[in-house]
Design a protein that fits this description.
- It is a single chain.
- The chain has about 220 residues and is of the alpha+beta class.
- It has 9 helices and 10 strands.
- The strands form 3 sheets. The chain has a 6-stranded mixed β-sheet with strand order 3-4-5-10-6-7. It has a two-stranded antiparallel ribbon with strand order 1-2.
- A hairpin with a 2-residue loop joins strand 8 and strand 9.
- Helix 4 crosses helix 5.
- The chain is globular and about 50 Å long.
- The two termini are about 25 Å apart.
């Protein structure tokens, strides 16, 4: 919900969002959003090249045509994720890891200042996971702000600089080693067990056993600068 609000896909109940001091609707080029895989219609008849070229849409618009620069940026993004050989493949025929690489390539082609990734490590192979994490480090070096939502507490603690812990409201935000404290984890997940003094999260948020169950996400920010 937070990420969808940041790109204007859901209305705000109150307040406002500004990126580079500008309101929503004026910054399409600088914010890239990679949704969860289940939100994508993989049956849509589009090729890998078409999907990645969509990242350049903000450059040439509804009635424009891709320029040489757009095609070069698309080809470079495909090469960076190692999927140049898949350009003419329909996205529905790809594996989960390949599909994730396609959407990462689309985001790279967009040349964003801010990258939002919703549960990007779900249902992918270890090679794609490591390639994604390496890419995030490269983007950080280029001063790109990357926000990743994840339920993987271990990855959040070990691989990201800052953690934003949410459960319908702000629980904690700051350096990951300071956020991952028993009182904050307990406030976010409600159930906290200990094994030999080590806190363990019992996350029943997605069990569906009760009609009012909620999904508790971690939004993790890996910022350049």
């Amino acid at each position: 919900t937070l990420f969808k609000a940041l790109v204007g896909l859901v209305p705000l109940r109150s307040g406002q969002i500004r990126i580079h001091s500008r309101p929503l609707g004026t910054h399409q080029d600088c914010v890239a959003y990679i949704p969860q895989r289940e939100e994508v219609d993989w049956r849509f008849p589009v090729t890998v090249w078409d999907v990645v070229m969509m990242g350049r849409f903000g450059k040439f618009g509804w009635f424009g045509q891709p320029t040489r620069a757009d095609r070069e940026a698309t080809a470079q993004a495909l090469a960076m994720l190692g999927i140049s050989g898949l350009t003419q493949r329909p996205i529905g025929e790809l594996s989960g890891g390949q599909q994730q690489r396609v959407f990462l390539s689309r985001a790279l082609a967009q040349e964003p200042h801010v990258l939002l990734m919703d549960e990007p490590f779900t249902g992918i192979d270890i090679n794609t996971q490591e390639a994604t994490l390496k890419l995030l480090q490269d983007l950080k070096a280029q001063k790109v702000t990357v926000l990743v939502s994840t339920h993987d507490l271990k990855m959040a603690a070990e691989r990201f600089d800052l953690t934003l812990l949410l459960n319908h409201k702000l629980i904690a935000f700051g350096p990951s080693q300071l956020v991952f404290q028993p009182e904050y984890i307990s406030a976010a997940f409600h159930q906290l067990l200990y094994l030999n003094g080590i806190p363990l999260v019992v996350d029943d948020c997605c069990s569906g056993d009760t009609p009012d169950h909620h999904e508790h996400n971690l939004a993790v920010e890996d910022r350049g600068g």
